[in-house]
Design brief:
nine-stranded mixed β-sheet, Thrombin, subunit H, alpha+beta, 19 strands, 358 residues
Length: 358
């Protein structure tokens, strides 16, 4: 397996610059893994594919206005992109600006000062603020849109899901951008249950893999939580034969992280695992709550423990996210589906259209 196996050519005109209005009017490409069939629908038609007893798992993280500007002692401007909060005053951040060393100070325009404590990977630095930066977000912060989006976003809330609740992400869990409150209510009215997880998305998630062998790529750690009520909902769903449907790769990663930390619940399961010909079915996992860091990296060959179906956007070439959906549906089938989407004029990436993989 090579990183080049996950490459494809995308016309620049296929990269969505603005979100669909209304949210659920985006297109939906339905991929049936069993027979490879494709269906071309509108996102609000997702109700036709979810059944009573199914569980929709959504990532309720909220994007913070993490792009802020500061001044050096010389007066030069510096851009800070906050990635992860280590504690009350320390943040890992991308720092754009020359001549900055360990010990250098910068002053946030309209906010506190920050000191560079440590050099991390690439342009990442560990910053120490003189006081908590979060209270200044409404005044100094800007929503950090991905670099391939060149249009200005008139309403910052369009880069948030309608159920965003827990602040902490540097990027949106974009598969959830297609849902409206009305669509979620309609699904619940049809007997589809909703459950929530939290994974605070870092920009590293979207970075292309540069190593020739993707297994050598270092995926960065992100914080996630699967609470007790969600664990209970998953276990109840599996007991009655319902499906767990993950909204976005971030929900997939949270579910599978919790799955790795949970125990099997089947008599004599340990002895059965020792039989190399025995494959554990999803229903034999009993999920437990999980909270903490995850660096789960899903490549083809991975055995999914909890996810039966997923809703996702179209991902960048050579990205870990493209590798994840390839692990779920098969690399060749995903690349064939992407080519079909390009020919059919689907919009790609964060503000683009969606896939439902069954």
């Amino acid at each position: 397996m090579k990183t080049s196996d996950f490459d494809y050519n995308l016309p620049e005109s296929s990269i969505a610059q603005t979100p669909a209005e209304p949210r659920d009017s985006s297109r939906l490409l339905v991929l049936h893994r069993g027979n490879g069939k494709l269906e071309h629908r509108i996102f609000r038609d997702v109700t036709d594919y979810l059944n009573a007893g199914d569980l929709l798992v959504l990532n309720q993280t909220r994007v913070i206005p993490a792009r802020i500007f500061a001044r050096k002692e010389t007066g030069g401007r510096v851009e800070l992109l906050l990635l992860r909060r280590r504690d009350l005053l320390r943040w890992e951040a991308l720092v754009g600006g020359k001549g900055l060393r360990v010990g250098s100070k910068v002053w946030v325009e309209g906010g506190p000062e920050a000191t560079i404590l440590e050099f991390l990977d690439g342009a990442e630095r560990l910053l120490l603020f003189s006081e908590p930066i979060e209270p200044y977000f409404p005044k100094v912060g800007h929503v950090p849109l991905p670099p391939y989006i060149h249009e200005k976003l008139s309403d910052p809330e369009r880069y948030q899901t309608v159920y965003a609740k827990e602040p902490g992400s540097a990027a949106a869990p974009t598969a959830g951008l297609h849902f409206t409150p009305r669509l979620l209510e309609e699904l619940q009215g049809r007997g589809v249950r909703l459950a929530y997880v939290t994974l605070h998305v870092g920009l590293d998630t979207f970075a292309p893999v540069t190593e020739e062998n993707p297994a050598q790529h270092k995926i960065h750690t992100e914080w996630c939580e699967l609470p007790q009520e969600t664990a209970d909902a998953i276990n109840q769903t599996r007991e009655v034969g319902g499906r767990v449907i993950a909204v976005g790769t971030t929900s997939v990663r949270t579910l599978e992280t919790a799955g790795q930390h949970s125990k099997l619940h089947h008599p004599n399961i340990e002895s059965r695992i020792s039989n190399s010909e025995y494959r554990i079915s999803n229903s034999e996992y009993r999920i437990s709550p999980f909270i903490g860091p995850t660096s789960i990296y899903i490549l083809p060959g991975y055995q999914f423990k909890l996810v039966d179906a997923m809703i996702t956007n179209f991902h960048l070439p050579k990205s870990t996210l493209l590798m994840l959906v390839s692990a779920f549906a098969g690399r060749e089938k995903i690349l064939e589906t992407y080519q079909a989407a390009i020919r059919a004029g689907y919009r790609f990436y964060s503000f683009g259209d969606a896939m439902l993989i069954l």
